[in-house]
Design brief:
Elements lengths: L1 H17 L8 E4 L2 E3 L7 E2 L1 E5 L2 E6 L1 H4 L8 E4 L4 E2 L10 H7 L3 E2 L6 H14 L6 E6 L12 H7 L5 E5 L5 E3 L5
């Protein structure tokens, strides 16, 4: 009997050590048709959200472990729930493309303008396009519109097509023309 009692006490004391240790979710959405975009687990029915981030995805029963006294529960009524990004005004695709383009927005001089195009040409293979720009010659002293001669010298093997910050002027080198 003493052995059984000791085992029961040990089991009771070890229980909290195995309990899931995480804060309660702010929101749990249940009864949803969730497309997870995860090949290994493409569908789910519930999601726990903590600090405006997805904390867990799974079944409604699994999400009960995230429930706390202040957790908001939303019944999706079987509707489709998709992961996504939402912004009031974003040019998401063009923003991504700009990461690989020459950045001239804050170039303050003719020399800096030319040096940035030369640096971009060094990063690329012969024949690859140099795109981007966003220059504003009004920030230069003295203000002077760039010409294709400036960029022909530093990017003779790469076609260049860049735009002014307002999109109303573009510049191409001889190879691009």
């Amino acid at each position: 009997m003493l052995l059984v009692t000791a085992m029961l006490v040990l089991a009771a004391l070890s229980g909290p050590a195995f309990a899931q240790e995480h804060p309660a979710a702010d929101t749990i959405i249940t009864n949803a048709n969730i497309w997870t975009v995860d090949r290994n687990h493409p569908k789910a029915e519930a999601v726990a959200i903590l600090n405006q981030r997805i904390a867990a995805v799974g079944t409604s029963v699994e999400m009960d472990g995230w429930r706390g006294p202040r957790t908001r529960i939303i019944d999706a009524g079987g509707k489709l729930l998709l992961p996504g990004f939402n912004d009031a005004h974003v040019h998401f695709v063009s923003g991504g493309f700009q990461l690989d383009q020459v950045q001239l927005t804050d170039a303050k001089t003719h020399d800096e303008f030319v040096q940035r195009i030369a640096a971009q040409a060094r990063k690329l293979k012969k024949g690859e396009w140099i795109l981007g720009g966003e220059w504003d010659e009004q920030n230069w002293s003295p203000p002077e519109l760039p010409t294709h001669d400036w960029i022909d010298q530093v990017a003779p093997d790469n076609p260049v097509f860049i735009e002014r910050h307002d999109g109303h002027e573009s510049l191409a080198n001889a190879l691009a023309m």
